[in-house]
Each structure stands twice: as C-alpha cells, then as structure tokens.
C-alpha cells in the first residue's frame, strides 16, 4: 500500500482512541534526558543503588537453578510462590491474614500500570465517573481516559484528600445522574503531590465511600519508601470489603522487572484473572522468578533501607534548595516519603508556558497540567528527587529559581 496518510486512519479509530494524546511527560523525557539538563521531571527510582553484581549473578542463574518453568508460559494469576512472597511484603505494612490477605486473592500484573488497567476494564463503562485526587497520577488518567470514563477531581491539602470535598463530589455526581464507580486514591506519599492521608482521614474516607457504595482503588507504590518513621497503615489493612489494593516492585526493587499486583476482594479476583488472560495470557514467568528469587535469597529489607536513606538525603537537598532559593510566594509540600514534591508557583507564573525557558536554562520539571484530567494545574509543578544526586538537585533548583525570577520580572 502506498500513499497512506494519517487522515486515512482517523475516521477508523475506535471512539476511545479519540481522546488519546501523547503524555506531556513522555514528550519531556526526550529533552530532559540530555546530560546537560538537570531533570527533576522524571520519576525513575535510583536502581544504581541495587547490588548490581549480585542481582546480575542471580538473574544469570535463574533458568539453570529454577528449571525450564522460568522460560515457559504460566498461569494467568501469577505463580503461587510469588503470590506468597507478595503476602509477606504486604504484611510489612499491616495487610496480613488478620485482614483477610491471602495468596488466593492476589493477581500478579505487569507493573502497577496493568493493575490499574485491569480494574478499569472490569468496572468502567464509557461515561462512568472515577473520583480521584486532584492532582493525580498521570498514568491513571491515561487508563481512565482509554476506558472513556470521566475523572472528577477531589482537592487535597497537606493531609491528603479532603473528606468534605469527597462527600460533596459524590453528591454532585449523583445529582447530575452519572454513576461514580470508585475512588482512585494514592493515600501514601502521593504522586504527584507528595502528601499522605492522615490516620483520622483514612477512617473518614473509608466511611464516606462505604456509605455511598463507592469502591476504593488504593494505589500504593510508595508506602514502603518512608523517610521519617512508618507511614499510616494502608486503607486495605482497615477494611477488606470494597477495597482493591494495588502495588508494585517498581519502587522497592526495580521497574525493569515490570511486576506488580492487585489484592482483590475474593469475589472479584477471578474476573481480574480472566481480563488479564485476555490481555497478556500470563505475566512473564522469568520476571516473576526473578522477583521471587530476589525476595527469597537477597537482603531486600536492607535494600529498602538503602533506597530510603538515599531518597531522604535527596528530599532534604530539594527542600533545602527550595527554602534557600525559591522566589517569595512559592510554596511546596514536604513529603515524608516517596519520590515527589509538589510546588505551587507565585501568582501569575505558568509552569507549562515557562517550560521552554526552563529547558533553555537546563532544568526540567513536569508542569502541573499533566496531573489533571481537565488540563488545569498550570500554577504548579512536580519535582522529582529520587534520581539526581543532591548536588545536582541543588543546581537544578538554582537554575529553576533563576528562570522564575526572570519570569516574575517580565
Ligand atoms: N501508580 C502510581 C501512583 C505510580 O506512580 C506508578 C509509577 N510511576 C504506577 C502506578 C505504575 O508503576 P509500575 O507500572 O512501574 O509498577
């Protein structure tokens, strides 16, 4: 076939493709990854902190030590060995047998991202409403958008989602005749805002959702990356009915493994497995064996400590840099874990419009607009502190502050 243009395809796309636009973040990555740019834009874990030689040796021996199953198809739900290990990992944050967590109800996924997609697949019809924090995880917005659902944002403050605003949003959606299916929430070390829902609010949020008949999808990739004492226990440890718990080894081990999971209410688990089989047949046997062996034979709790220490130092560098260098009127969150700080710019500054000038000044961030379904949020930016070393972070903030001062003077 010759002479095919994009136009030849546009009227053939499925309806759900129409709203699919390239993520702002993806577009930024190409520029931000140039070595001269200090990138506070990414969200990459610092995997160089892993004992790479030991991990390499473990990976090299997987097939020989664990037999051909590591190279074979497996079952859609994921291996029992890994699901058992996942239960051990969840028990660390209080999700244990006492609250009904069992390998039976765990579904292994290709990262937390597939976990989100599966939940969307089994629950969302076009036009359904998902309630989510404003701002929220950009990858979740992509999933909900592909499901043709509508995201209604619920505002947060430094203590996480505002329970009153959640109640209001539920009432408004009901008044408009639409159906809200679930609350999507990242209660601990939120991406992008860096804030954590307090103990007291956790109970209130769960009560509100229960009363409204709203499912809760708890996305928790960061809960184990706490810097200043333990994070509040996950929502799922407090309530088993109606709460889906999603997590991943991307931040506690390595995103390259692409291994995550869902702990689902028992009745729903089978639907998730069927949906996953339709999508991917089964998660990678090799990646599952790698994660299982990593958890069984390597000091993964020590590694978690290492990640925490490195990120704590980097968070401190970012917060100190912001305090010393940001123009008056700038505010930011002070995360107690995770990978991100959310900054609010002085009145009149637009993080999206400023981006080309920031890149020219060799610093990158993600404008707040990427984290809202309706494109608002231009007065904010997300700053990542997990990847660049402390001195680069400081230099990045210095460059950023310079750009902001210039904008303010314009
Ligand atoms: N949820 C949240 C809140 C995230 O920040 C991420 C990764 N940035 C994911 C899910 C997906 O993680 P992965 O697919 O790498 O496990």
Structure summarized in a few sentences:
The chain has 410 residues and is α/β, with parallel strands linked by helices. It has helices spanning 7-10, 15-18, 24-32, 52-66, 80-92, 111-123, 138-146, 163-175, 199-212, 266-280, 285-297, 300-325, 351-360, 390-409; strands at 38-39, 106-109, 129-134, 150-157, 160-161, 180-185, 215-219, 243-248, 260-263, 331-332, 340-344, 363-364, 366-367, 380-384.
Label this structure with key terms.
single chain; 410 residues; alpha/beta; eight-stranded mixed sheet; binds 4'-deoxy-4'-aminopyridoxal-5'-phosphate; GntR family transcriptional regulator; PyrdxlP-dep_Trfase_major; pyridoxal phosphate binding; transferase; PyrdxlP-dep_Trfase_small
How would you describe this protein?
The chain is of the alpha/beta class. Helices cover 43% and strands 14% of the residues. The chain is built from 14 helices and 14 strands. The strands form 3 sheets. It has an 8-stranded mixed beta sheet with strand order 2-9-8-7-6-3-4-5, with helices on both faces. The chain has a 4-stranded antiparallel beta sheet with strand order 10-11-14-13. A two-stranded parallel ribbon has the order 1-12. Helix 9 (199-212) links the parallel strand 6 and strand 7. Helix 4 packs across helix 11 (285-297) and helix 6 runs parallel beside helix 7 (138-146). The radius of gyration is 21 Å and the shape is globular. It binds 4'-deoxy-4'-aminopyridoxal-5'-phosphate. Residues 43, 111-113, 137, 139, 186, 191, 219, 221, 248, 250, 255, 260 line the site of 4'-deoxy-4'-aminopyridoxal-5'-phosphate (PMP).
């Amino acid at each position: 076939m010759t002479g095919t243009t994009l136009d030849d395809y546009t009227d053939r796309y499925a309806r759900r493709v129409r709203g699919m636009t390239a993520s702002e973040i993806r577009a930024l990555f190409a520029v931000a990854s140039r070595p001269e740019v200090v990138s506070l834009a990414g969200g990459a874990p610092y995997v160089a902190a892993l004992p790479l030689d030991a991990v390499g040796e473990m990976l090299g021996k997987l097939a020989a030590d664990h037999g051909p199953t590591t190279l074979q198809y497996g079952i859609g739900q994921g291996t029992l060995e890994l699901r058992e290990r996942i239960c051990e990992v969840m028990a660390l944050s209080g999700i244990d047998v006492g609250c009904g967590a069992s390998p039976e109800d765990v579904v292994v996924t290709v990262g937390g991202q597939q976990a989100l997609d599966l939940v969307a697949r089994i629950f969302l019809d076009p036009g359904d409403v998902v309630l989510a924090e404003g701002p929220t995880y950009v990858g979740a917005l992509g999933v909900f958008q592909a499901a043709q659902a509508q995201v209604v944002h619920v505002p947060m403050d430094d203590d996480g989602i505002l329970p009153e605003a959640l109640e209001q949003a539920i009432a408004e959606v009901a008044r408009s005749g639409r159906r809200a299916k679930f609350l999507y929430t990242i209660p601990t070390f939120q991406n992008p805002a860096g804030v954590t829902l307090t103990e007291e609010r956790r109970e209130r949020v769960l009560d509100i959702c229960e009363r409204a008949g709203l499912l809760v999808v708890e996305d928790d990739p960061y809960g184990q990356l706490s810097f200043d004492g333990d994070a509040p226990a996950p929502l799922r440890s407090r309530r088993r009915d109606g709460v889906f718990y999603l997590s991943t080894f991307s931040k506690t081990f390595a995103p390259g493994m692409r291994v995550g999971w869902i702990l689902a209410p028992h009745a729903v688990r089978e639907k998730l497995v069927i949906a996953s089989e339709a999508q991917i047949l089964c998660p990678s046997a090799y990646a599952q064996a790698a994660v299982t062996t990593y958890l069984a034979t390597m000091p993964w709790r020590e590694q978690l400590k290492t990640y925490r220490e490195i990120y704590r130092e980097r968070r401190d560098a970012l917060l100190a840099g912001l305090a010393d260098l940001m123009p008056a009127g700038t505010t930011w969150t002070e995360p107690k874990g995770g990978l991100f700080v959310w900054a609010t710019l002085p009145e009149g500054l637009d993080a999206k419009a400023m981006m080309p000038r920031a890149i020219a000044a060799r610093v990158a961030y993600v404008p707040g607009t990427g984290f809202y379904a309706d494109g608002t949020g231009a007065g904010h930016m997300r700053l990542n502190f997990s990847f660049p070393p402390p001195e680069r972070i400081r230099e990045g903030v210095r460059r950023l502050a310079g750009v902001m001062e210039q904008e303010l003077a314009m």
